[in-house]
Amino acid sequence: MDNLTGKWNFTEEFECGIDRGFAILEHNGDKITGYLEYEECIEDEEPFMVRQMVEGTIHGNSVVLRGGGGVYPDGKPIPNYNLDILEGTYTHEKKIVGHTYDSEDVCGVFVMTRADD
Fold it and tell me: Is 10 within 8 Å of 21 (Cβ atoms)?
């Protein structure tokens, strides 16, 4: 298994919009920590920036990340932000691809590609 530590480009398409940004991940053993930072574009709403802290695990090629807090990039909390769970696979193309869902069962698909290659 490759080490997943580093910067990743991140895109997510979900039922009512698109997120585009990046992820910073730290991979240590079977644990992954870091954050996603992205512009959230929801239909009929003004886009806004989000930094979502994540932590999770990797077993084989299976990657699971759980949102642990949503803040604006300046650190101010985003009230009532629905944190994501990302369940994906590290592919032979060296991408992490999978699906997301949140506490309101809003589902999406995501792709992460290395930004530092």
Answer: yes
